[in-house]
Amino acid sequence: MPELPEVETTCRGVRPHLLGRKILAVAVRERRLRWPVDVAIDRLPGQTVHEVSRRAKYLLIKVDRGTVIVHLGMSGSLRLADPELAVRKHDHLLLQLDSGLELRFHDPRRFGAWLWTAGNPHQHRLLNRLGPEPLADGFNSEYLRQCCRGRKKSIKEMLMDAAVVVGVGNIYASESLFYAGIHPARAAGRISKNRLERLVESVQSVLQQAIQQGGTTLRDFLREDGSPGYFRQQLAVYERKGQPCPVCNTPIAHRVLGQRSTYFCPKCQKG
DNA sequence: AAAACTACCTGAGTGC
DNA sequence: TGCACTCAGGTAGTTT
């Protein structure tokens, strides 16, 4: 589930527990994540955390000799736990801190990642071709128009393309298009400037509201203290097939787009 | 260049 | 109760 709001929530949640803390010990209980856990992670003990930030859906934890790059994948979550607490199934990685707490990475599907770079993390091959942050100035209607010009791909797939804009996954793509009144299957190149402008605003307001609610918990996502995100209650269309549109009461429709479940209101999102 | 599709993995839910 | 099956939030990599 983790899309931008969930990763941002995690980032804000773990940051105060990590900043300035020294890592005392590391236990890699399962190395087989999306890629094998980088062996540099085993050498974290003794290093101090200097910065915790987010780029796209990646968490960046800067320590003495480089940066840990964490991705939550589809089912990952980070949690601060009392080390005495029993380790759960799928707790793949444990970082013992000098505060007495332990950072635990839990990821049933193992699509997450723990990578390392000694240099500038933004130059890392997984990060250096990413599009702008949706909540930054670089993501605006003029930019989006350039991206969409001449493209036949659906606007929803476009929003989910990290080279166009980062952090917008399957849930927030459907939600944003609903608020912009744009049909998710519409060819990206055939949307007017005004409507793209409205889409930029929708993406930003949906993400901001989701961050305020601590993200969306559908199945796996939990915050650093184990609590869920509360944005699920605010979802207008996602996973609401057949239920009334919050605006016009028309039953929400569902179809597959780019092999992903897509939800929309057939009346509010005609064009 | 862009679009289409595959792969990675576990668990929840459904239908027989 | 059990088995077979489908589906799920991400995204790099390969093929068309």
Give the overall shape, derived from the CA principal axes: globular
Helix content: 10-25%
Strand runs, count: 10
> What structural class do the secondary elements suggest?
alpha+beta
Distance between the termini: 28 Å
Estimated share of beta-strand residues: 15-25%
Element string (H = helix, E = strand): HEEEEEEEEHHHHEE
Provide a count of the helices: 5
Low-confidence stretches: none
On the 0 to 100 scale, the average pLDDT is 94
Strand order of the largest sheet: 1-6-7-5
Report the C-alpha radius of gyration, rounded.
20 Å
- Characterize the largest beta sheet: strand count, sense, and whether it forms a barrel: 4 strands, antiparallel
Provide a short characterization of the protein structure.
With 271 residues, this protein is an alpha+beta fold. Helices cover 22% and strands 21% of the residues. The relative contact order is 0.15.
Give the SSE layout.
Layout: H1 4-18, E1 23-28, E2 49-55, E3 58-63, E4 66-71, E5 77-81, E6 91-97, E7 102-106, E8 113-117, H2 141-148, H3 155-159, H4 170-180, H5 193-212, E9 253-257, E10 260-264
Antiparallel strand pairs: 1-6, 2-3, 3-4, 4-8, 5-7, 6-7, 9-10
The structure holds a DNA duplex (16 and 16 nucleotides).
